[in-house]
Amino acid sequence: MSERYFYDLEERTLKFAIDIRQFIKKLPKTIANNEDSKQLVRSSGSIGANYVEANESLGTKDKLMRKKISRKECKESVFWLKCINESNELNNSVEANLLINEDTELLKIFSSIIEKLKD
Question: DSSP strand E in 1-119: where?
Fold first, then answer.
C-alpha cells in the first residue's frame, strides 16, 4: 500500500473523531447521553490513534494488533452511536446515521487491511 493511502486513512479517522465531538455537542444534556458520549469520545478517538501507532509499529505482529484494536474501537463506536441515536428523539438523527455509515465504512476498511496482513 502506498504512503498516500496511510495518510488518507489517518486523516479520515481524525475527521471522524472530530465529527463525533461536534455531534456530541448538540445532544440533549442527560445523564445517559453524558455517559454514552464519554464512551463514544474514547472509542472514536482510539480508532485513529491506534491506526497511527500501527503505522509506526515495531513489527508485523504489533501492526496487526493495533489495527485489530482500531477495528474493535469501530465496532464500539457504532454501538454507542446507535445507543444515543435510538434512545433520543434527535433533531440531528440524519447526522447520527451518517456517522454510523462512516464508522461502518471504516470498520470494513480495517477488516480488509487485517485480512491482507494475515496473508
Answer: none
